[in-house]
Amino acid sequence: MKNKITGKLKRNVGFMSAVSISMGTMIGAGIFVLPGIAIAKAGSGAIISFAIAGLIALTAALSASELASGMPKAGGSYHIINRSLGPAIGSVAGWGSWVGLVFKGSFAVVGFAYYFALFVHLPVVPVAIAAIVFLTFINVVGAKESGTTQILMVIGLLIILVVFTGWGFFEVNFSNYKPFLPYGWDSVFMVAGLVFVSYVGLIEASAIAEEIKNPRETIPKAIILSTIIVILLYVLVMFVVAGVAPHGFFAGTETPVVKAAEIFMGNTGMTILAFAGLLATLSTGNAVILCSPRYSFAMSRDGLMPDWLSEVHGKFYTPYKSILVTAGAMILLVLFVDVIGLAELASAFNLVLFSLINVSVILMRVNKPLWFKPSFRSPGYPLVQTIGTIASLSLIPAMGAMPTIAALLFIFGGLSWYYLWGRDRIENKSVALDISRGLRARMAL
Q1: CB–CB of 300/75 below 8 Å?
Q2: Could you tell me if 194 and 34 are in contact, meaning their C-beta atoms sit under 8 angstroms apart?
Q3: Which SS3 state, helix, strand or coil, does residue 155 take?
Q4: What integer pLDDT is reported at residue 287 of this predicted model?
Q5: Which of 45, 136, 230, 267 has a Cα-to-Cα distance from 398 of 20 to 30 A?
Q6: Could you read off the pLDDT of 291-330 as tens digits, one per residue?
Q7: pLDDT value at residue 209
Q8: How far is CA 372 from CA 83, 177, 219, 367, 386, in A?
């Protein structure tokens, strides 16, 4: 029933599926759960927080689009960073990508359970675990089926959120924005780090590059289009939520968008937005279980993880063992980590990852390897990459001690894993090594 490492993934994911996977990973618990927490911590300044996080995410989207169009392989950011910065940093990126997405997926299914409770009063944890089991089954069956499901959910979400923001724009009371920065700029940057989890997943179309049709053209278009749409949508949603009620109105609620809809759309609107919350959180969980196993699959194929993680199912052509391990990790997180902790850790890991992606573009442009021929080049180079790297790393300490320590420990853990496990199993073919050799040769001369 299965093929071993020689098994190949099947190209059956089109442009719309790629866009919906990227958008579906972003449009989820981040916007349906975090606005209330963000407003409580930063007031109306939370609108700026979402914009700052979005702009940082956009720099990574441009960089990842260039890199993925030149290296369309499964594993996305892991493969990109492995070939540019070397397998040691690639190990950090692979583990960071996988774990960061697992944290986001766990955060999403917990958000799904909160919204499900608006319809049926059941405990949060069992509902979240049931959602993971259901999504795991869909993704083992095939990426095409998962992509089709994703398209339907994302289209439904976009329609509902466009109606919500369009209607809510005319119901805003500008006095509710005062004071706009009740806790100062420090709170705005701290919240920007917290809500960065909302944009985690924007480059996940590159993680399934070996299953996407015409990946060199499709992936850049999917990543950039989905990122721009989601940034605009998030800022508009926050503008409406912060403007229809005083700051304290949303404190302590896990369903802030539903409460906002109830104010100006009544019970019917509240029900529709609650359904949208279900779709959004479920689509995020689905996209995570679709994309994150491709990181462990790619690392296993390279020798940085056990061989059995790269087994492809003989009937469904999916990395089913990697999918099952991802689902198991999500269940453990749902059982033992609170929702804010999930959001903060997912943000911290991915801020590190996005900075590495920006640095990778600079290395590729400097070295110009003959095998790297991207179909897309990031505009604004190298300013975009420099700003993106500095801003990404600056947001982590702004979030507080716990996410900063977790990010540092994870970097150390990824490097340790490489030197203890993978150093003798993988050949270094990176651009960083080529640059290092060139420098040593010039110094010798």
Answers
A1: no
A2: yes
A3: helix
A4: 77
A5: 230
A6: 778 788 878 888 888 888 878 877 767 788 888 999 999 9
A7: 66
A8: 10, 49, 16, 10, 21
Residue 87, preceding peptide bond in cis (omega within 30° of 0) = no
List the alpha helices (DSSP H) in 117-214: 124-141, 143-169, 184-195
In 3D space, the residue among 30, 48, 39 whose CA is nearest the CA of residue 252 turns out to be 39
Q: What is the pLDDT of residue 146?
A: 55
> What residues pair up with 312 in beta bridges, in sequence order?
3
Distance from the Cα of residue 131 to its chain's centroid:
19
Q: What does pTM read for this prediction?
A: 0.82
Tokens found for residue 286: 């689905």
> Residue 347: pLDDT band by 50, 70, 90 thresholds?
confident
**What is the per-residue pLDDT for 75?**
62
C-alpha closest to that of 99 among 419, 406, 418, 421: 406
Q: Which stretches of 43-123 are DSSP H helices?
A: 46-70, 77-85, 87-116
Q: Residue 2: pLDDT above 70?
A: no
Phi, psi of 2 (to 5 degrees): -145, 155
Residue carrying the six token digits 């009740």: 182
Among 422, 394, 335, smallest CA distance to 110 is for: 335
Q: What is the C-alpha separation between 85 and 99, in angstroms, rounded?
A: 20
Query: Taking every pair of C-alpha atoms in the chain, what is the biggest distance, in angstroms?
Result: 77
State how far the Cα of 273 lies from the Cα of 135, in Å rounded to an integer: 22
Q: How far apart are CA 127 and CA 161, in angstroms?
A: 24
Q: Are 279 and 125 in contact (CB under 8 A)?
A: no
Hey, how many other C-beta atoms are within 10 angstroms of the C-beta on 364? 21
Cα 363 from Cα 6, distance rounded (Å): 31
The pLDDT of residue 388 is 93
Q: Which of 202, 177, 198, 212 is nearest to 72 (CA)?
A: 212
